[in-house]
Each structure stands twice: as C-alpha cells, then as structure tokens.
Amino acid sequence: MSEGNQVKKGPAMISDRDIYRSAAVMIRRYGDGAALEAGSRGDSLLDTGDIEGYGTWLQIVRAIRQLQRTSPTDGDMVH
Asked: Using CB atoms within 10 A of its CB, is residue 45 exposed (0-12), middle (13-18) or buried (19+)?
C-alpha cells in the first residue's frame, strides 16, 4: 500500500462505560443543566451533518437522565 492510501474504518464504537463516564463529567461540570448542555452539543453536531456524533451525545443525554433520577421508573428493578 502506498503512503497516500488510507484505509477507511467504520464508525468508532463507544463503550457504555465511556458513555457513563462522559455523563458523570457533564453532571459534575453542569449540574442540573448537564442534559441540556449535552443535548446542545449533540444538536450542534447534527447541524453539521455528523449523525454519529449526534448519536453519541444522545446516548450521553440518556445516561445523564438515568444518573440523575431520584426514584425508579416503571419496569426498573430495585435491589
């Protein structure tokens, strides 16, 4: 393969651990406004056509909401 050729790779898979780690950082930094800030970042990426980036931020928003819940919702298991 010559130096100028590059192999295109598919979308990077982000682990649940990294999603929740990012959510925790957003909560520490933005508190109750973390989900709104994460959503805004996702929207900015969507505006530029970055669907994968938008999807990642959507996952982070969901994780933030889950981490900030104070009581279980229907269907949640309680230990």
From this structure: middle
